[in-house]
Structure formats: C-alpha cells, structure tokens
Amino acid sequence: MTVTEQAAPARTHASTLTATDVVVEFPVGRGQKVHAVSGVSLEVPPGTTLGILGESGCGKSTIGRALIQLPPPDSGSVRLGDLELTELGSRDLRRARARMQIIMQDPVSALNPRRKVKDLVWEGRSIWGHDGETPKDVLVDDMLRSVGLDPDAVRDKHPHELSGGQCQRVCIARALMMDPEVLICDEPVSSLDVSVQAQILNLLETSARSFGLSMVFIAHDVSVVKNISDQVMVMYLGKACEVVPSDEMHRTSVHPYTRLLLASIPGEPQDHPHAQQVSVELPSPLDPPSGCRFRTRCPIATDRCAAEEPRMREIAPGHTVACHHVAVGADE
C-alpha cells in the first residue's frame, strides 16, 4: 500500500510530547562538528505552549526540527505519548509526523509556487486520503475562514499573489487541516511586518485553543515568546539554561543569561544583580567552552563554572535552572 492509499491517522486523544537528552551535531570536516544541541530535555503536556528562547545560533530551531525528526537527533529520546519517534521506521515515522505539524520561518518559500491556495491547504489530506463525507472545497473554505482569509479572494491564487501575512495564514491552515496534536512554530512571525505579527500571534493562540493543540513556539523575541507561552525554555549555545513559567519570567528568573535577555528589552529595569550587559562575543559551537557554556560571558562566573558543567535542577515548582550559583528556593 502506498502512502497516498493509507488512511490519515485519526486523532483520538492528545499526547504529551517529551524529549530527553537530545543531541544534534553536524560534521563540518577535518574531524570537527557543530554542537548544535547538547543534551536538551523538555516536556509539552497536551493543550500547553512551550516557548523556546535564545540568540541566533543557540540551537532552538534545531531542537524544534529534531522533535519532528527533521533530521533525527544523533542520540536521545523523543516521545509523542507512548510512541518513541527515534525508533520508528520510515513508514511508521511518516504516519507519526501527521500528528505533528511544523510552521516555517519564511512562509513564501514554504509554499509550492506552482500550486493554488486551495491545493496547498488540501495537500496533507490529499497525501493521506480523505474518507469523510464533507466535500474538499467545503473543508478548505471553512479552514481558510478559520485563519482569517476570504476563500473567494484567495482560493485560486498562487503564493506570489499573496502578502507575507496571507502566506503565513495559508501555512497555518495547511497545518491545521491535518488535525495535529502538536504544532511546532519555528520563528513564524520574524519575517513579517510588526503590524502583521500581532495578527498571526493572535491567530496561533486562538487556533491552539479551538483545535486543542500543544505548541512549541520558537523565537528570539523575548516579549513574543513570553506572551504566547505557558512555559519558557531559555537556550544558550546548544544547552537549556532555564525553564520558567512565562507569567513569572520577569519576576522569578535567576539565570544570568535569562536576566541578560530580559535586560535587553527597551524600558525594562536594569537593576537585577545578574542583568549586567556583556560585550564578549558568542563562542563558536565548533568548540564550546568547558563547564558552563555561558561562563565566558557571565558576570558571576567562578573557577567552578569552568571545571564543572551545571545540571538542570528544580528550584521551585515548574522552575528549573542550570547554574552553580542559584540556590534551591531562590524564587520563593
């Protein structure tokens, strides 16, 4: 049986997405490799949104793609409910991927320029087969309306005839058409105008509630990640530094790097003891520092930070941090 003959995997319940000690490395020749993701763990319960925050090159997009096995991690575990994705063969993995959809950073290049909007939105269903009674055109039009597009105005257009914001809405509609359990958003608003960003963010939030989705939202904008997420995971040079509830992030975050990111927001207070600005250049992921990877830029680093890698540990309910100089109960 070919893929096009298989029935689309029906969603019977929502599952928790869990990653444990995920490692992704890219060889670059001469025995060197980029340490893109180094032992990152995360959990996204059903109906929640995990934001992943960090500078360019920190590995946040790589971990997002590793969750959906594009490409599979070099080591570690990725589970969707009881299903271990890293152990699946190509056939079973394709079926599992139908339960997880990804929205790319550049909406225009993510769409086939030769196809019309109505065919792009229906693409997933055409691959897996549609066995429902509702006609294709009705389902496509309903989905376009749900993402704020007028079906009569866009269904027969090609991507180059739409704005960037409209293309991103088409990408969202295409993903939602598969009725996924998890939506991975890889910087979905960074290439859009500021006025359009708020519309897309509101659409994603509304869609997550309406369709009962879990989301992994990846971005480098602190305010965007904080506002859309339930929890925020801060990454630096392939490592997770801190995981903190988003509504408590400004008040309780304690890792020096998280405080540095918060201090970079215009108008935010700069009086936190760990919010000192640093001018040291970001180290290369080809040769990351020993111990704590942030130590070369950290205002409170000690010899222990160079000799011993800090482990993620819980300092308060729902709040974990990897820093030698943070005490348990620090945000109480």
UniProtKB/TrEMBL annotation:
MF terms in GO: ATP binding
Protein species of origin: Nocardioides deserti
Protein's recorded name: ATP-binding cassette domain-containing protein
Protein family membership: Belongs to the ABC transporter superfamily.
Transcription regulation keyword on record: no
Signal peptide feature range: none
ATP-binding found in the keyword field: yes
Keyword list, A-Z: ATP-binding, Nucleotide-binding, Transport
Annotated ABC transporter domain residues: 17-262
